[in-house]
Amino acid sequence: MSRVGNAPIEVAEKVSVDIGSNNLVTVKGPMGELKLQVNPEIALKIEDSTLTLVRPTDQKRHKAMHGLYRSLLNNMVTGVSKGFSKELEVIGVGFRAAVQNGILELALGFSHPIYLVPPEGIKIEVDTKRGKNTFVTVSGIDKQMVGQVAAKIRSLRPPEPYKGKGVRYSDEYVRRKAGKTAAK
């Protein structure tokens, strides 16, 4: 069984962690502020610059919450200090991406362009230096939100297995299939 919950969370110098009433945790850092309501059964302790979580019993439910909240809090501390980002690649003839006034415009082979307004706290950039408007970077302090927006962009035109056209993560491998063969 995983022992993720037992690992202490190292809090950086520029990050402050406040535990409010009813286990409302507020993490502030140079990139922003995040809040999380932790289950009151999980005890939180701040000593020096480390945050530890203590579960009341070894029940399966408490073990699951222990690891979950430890991961969520660690992602919050990392997010407000360094931030998170996901990179997507747009591949295909005539496929392109552009950002105008904070709105992402995608041309993905449909009869119309697709416009995506990012939620608050998410920044979308298109890198034009590496290619012809083919690299899209989604960044922010909330790991879950960054992943969700990146998945939404990818779902607009997932990569297809024959030519590999579509939107994919930059580190994603698309397994290619052989096309039809001519009859003899």
Gyration radius, rounded: 21 Å
Strand content: 35-45%
Shape: elongated
**In angstroms, what separates the terminal alpha carbons?**
57 Å
What labels would you give this structure?
single chain, 184 residues, alpha+beta, Outer Surface Protein A, domain 3, 2 domains, 4-stranded antiparallel sheet, 3-stranded antiparallel sheet, 35% strand
In short:
19% of the residues lie in helices and 35% in strands. It contains two helices and 13 strands, in the order ββββββαββββββαβ.
Structural features, described:
It is a single chain. The chain is of the alpha+beta class. The chain has 2 domains: 4-81, Ribosomal protein L6 (Outer Surface Protein A, domain 3, Alpha-Beta Complex), CATH 3.90.930; 84-169, Outer Surface Protein A, domain 3. Helix content is 19%, strand content 35%. The chain has 2 helices and 13 strands; from the N terminus they run ββββββαββββββαβ. The protein has helices spanning 60-81, 143-155; strands at residues 9-10, 16-19, 24-29, 32-37, 43-47, 50-54, 84-91, 96-100, 103-107, 114-116, 122-127, 135-140, 166-169. A 4-stranded antiparallel beta sheet has the order 11-12-7-13, with helices on one face. It is elongated. The N and C termini lie far apart (57 Å).
Q: Helices, strands, pairings?
A:
Layout: E1 9-10, E2 16-19, E3 24-29, E4 32-37, E5 43-47, E6 50-54, H1 60-81, E7 84-91, E8 96-100, E9 103-107, E10 114-116, E11 122-127, E12 135-140, H2 143-155, E13 166-169
Antiparallel strand pairs: 1-6, 2-3, 3-4, 5-6, 7-12, 7-13, 8-9, 9-10, 11-12
